[in-house]
């Protein structure tokens, strides 16, 4: 695995994601309690940045049409989205979030 520095942990809001660009990928880094997740930052239904939506109950919302995506699996939990988005491995060390965009946890190829 090849982890890249994404951000400082304290830069990630409790109820929203932080948009970061790692290489050629736009990633949304989000927190749910003590867990940190990295998910593709584009809704699979409409090309909208997921980082602009709210994060709650281990889900991130696409603000435009209301689809929710599970931060662990990338799967949509309600319509109109039906396709999952990529999720990436995360490592938090010394207050810094690192993400591996060369690997996906759910097998989805990022757009």
Give keywords.
111 residues; mainly beta; 10 strands; 0% helix; globular
Tell me the β content: 35-45%
Helix count equals: 0
| Arrangement of strands in the largest sheet | 2-3-4-8
Instruction: Tell me roughly what share of residues is in helical segments.
Output: under 10%
Biggest sheet statistics = 4 strands, antiparallel
The strand count comes to 10
Q: What is the radius of gyration?
A: 12 Å
Assign an overall shape: globular
For the residues shown, what is the average pLDDT?
96
Residue windows where pLDDT falls under 50 for at least 5 positions = none
Listing every helix as H and every strand as E from the N terminus to the C terminus, the arrangement reads: EEEEEEEEEE
Structural category is mainly beta
Cα separation of the termini: 20 Å
Short description:
The protein is mostly beta strands and 111 residues long. The chain has strands at 4-8, 18-22, 25-32, 35-40, 55-56, 59-61, 68-70, 87-88, 90-93, 96-99.
Can you put this structure into words, describing what you see?
This protein is mainly beta and about 110 residues long. It is about 0% helix and about 40% strand. It contains no helices and 10 strands. The chain has strands spanning about 5-10, 20, 25-30, 35-40, 55, 60, 70, 85-90, 90-95, 95-100. The strands form 3 sheets. It has a 4-stranded antiparallel sheet, with no helix packed on it. A 3-stranded antiparallel sheet has the order 1-10-9, with no helix packed on it. Strands 5-6-7 form a 3-stranded antiparallel sheet, with no helix packed on it. It is globular, with a radius of gyration of 12 Å. The two termini are about 20 Å apart. The model has no long low-confidence stretch (mean pLDDT about 95).
């Amino acid at each position: 695995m090849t982890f890249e520095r994404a951000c400082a942990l304290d830069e990630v809001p409790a109820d929203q994601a932080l948009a970061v660009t790692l290489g050629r990928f736009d990633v949304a880094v989000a927190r749910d309690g003590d867990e940190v997740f990295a998910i593709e930052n584009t809704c699979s239904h409409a090309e909208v940045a997921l980082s602009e939506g709210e994060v709650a109950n281990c889900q991130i919302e696409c603000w435009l049409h209301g689809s929710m995506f599970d931060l662990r699996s990338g799967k949509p939990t309600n319509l109109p989205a039906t396709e999952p988005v990529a999720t990436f491995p995360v490592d938090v060390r010394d207050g810094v979030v690192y993400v591996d965009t060369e690997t996906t946890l759910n097998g989805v190829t990022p757009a």
